[in-house]
Specification:
- Keywords: Oxidoreductase.
- This is Cation diffusion facilitator CzcD-associated flavoprotein CzcO.
- The structure is a single chain.
- The chain contains seven helices and 13 strands.
- It is of the alpha/beta class and about 325 residues long.
- The protein has two domains: about 180 residues, FAD/NAD(P)-binding domain (3-Layer(bba) Sandwich); about 120 residues, 3-Layer(bba) Sandwich (FAD/NAD(P)-binding domain), CATH 3.50.50.
- Strand 2, helix 2 and strand 3 form a beta-alpha-beta unit.
- The longest helix has 17 residues.
- The radius of gyration is 21 Å and the shape is globular.
Amino acid sequence: MPGSGTRPVGRREGGTALNVIVIGGGQAGLAAGYHLRRAGVDFTILDAQPEPGGAWLHGWDSLRLFSPARHSSLPGWPMPRFPHEGYPTADHVVDYLASYEKRYELPVERSVRVRSVRRVEGGYDVDGRFADAVISATGTWWRPFIPAVARDLPGRHLHTVQYRNPQQLAGQRVVVVGGGNSGAQIAADLADHVDLTWITRRPPRYLPDEIDGKALFGIATQWPGGVGALGDIVAVPPVRDARDRGLLVARPMDRRLVADADTVIWCTGFRPALDHLAPLNLRDRNGHVHAGPRLHPLGYGDWTGPASATLIGVGPTARAAVAELVRT
């Protein structure tokens, strides 16, 4: 097994193996599993989905990475080269995550949805299973956010998670709301196929065209203010093409435009999927859950580590979390 030469160090006082439960089998959970394996820790990964791939299984059809495969890897094993033109597709990422899981023989239990994590003497009760420590890596895809105003408007309302391709909306008046990467990419995907209106809260802020995921990781970890200080939208080739052809013309919010649409796609972000940690009462006023005694949230955004919600960025945070668990 790759990496099997590491010596076991994940031991509690008295020689008993540290028992860790990782909740979530997407990219963050697998990165945690890699470092737990190297540390010789006894662990299992509980994943609610029936197959590998995490949120990458559910993106829209044209979704691609921001970077070449070599700059989009989890720790230990580089993502294989994408054999076609352009950056890797979501399917390529899913294949990589499935192979990564097998390569490191990570103990993933599937179709296991964790309902609650509670403190008990010496550790945690995870739906009836005991754990000395918990790493929560459930991501954000499962908690899409749609503003409350959508409830009072006519028409069909979708979120990013429900969009698949332009054929889904052929012949319709479509409003895309959101000035981030998802909004720009979906608007670009639709621009040639529907009567499109793109609504953003402020004028779109494109990052310089030459910036890709590798540069984004460096900016997120080293630049004061992170990526947001430079812009909101990575100019991936389809977005750049639609922008340069004058098809991505953003308009400010107009309730009438939204009300007149056949379909509105709300590209308005996500919230951390942390309901299972509610019994611990660890949320702050921003809805974030910070590390508790032997409990680490992983991969939810910059508040859990710089660029930790990205393939290339989650590895260092996962390594630090495992090192902290072993040390304590």
